[in-house]
Amino acid sequence: MRRDVFQAIADPTRREIISLISQQSLNLNAVADHFDMSRPAVSKHIKILMECGLLVIRQDGRERYCEPQLKKIKEVALWAEKYQAFWSQKLDALEAFLGQENKSNS
């Protein structure tokens, strides 16, 4: 199954994993220790993040470390940027409307 970055960030657990490893590389056990779920469940989330290209696993002796590959997050930022202008315009219009309403009620 082909996955994309939007699937990765759709889940709060995966967003939290991204946040954790963006600060420092962590071994798989350290990542799992942050969650109240089984290690296999955390491993499934990590696998999805790997398939989406948001992290890689680096082997260091017997330990396996999750390392961030966050360039793909830019894809989300570019997508959201399209809507920023739209919502800014709508919110500016609402602000102007509410300002007129306040003047007429005073």
TrEMBL record:
InterPro entries the record matches: ArsR-like_HTH, HTH_ArsR_DNA-bd_dom, WH-like_DNA-bd_sf, WH_DNA-bd_sf
Record-linked SMART domains: HTH_ARSR
Superkingdom, taxonomy of origin: Bacteria
Positions of the HTH arsR-type domain: 1-88
One Pfam family this sequence matches: HTH_5
Example GO molecular function: DNA-binding transcription factor activity
Coiled coil: none
Entries under NCBIfam families matching the protein: HTH_metalloreg (NF033788)
Stored PANTHER family: TRANSCRIPTIONAL REGULATORY PROTEIN
Record's protein name: Transcriptional regulator
Organism: Pedobacter steynii
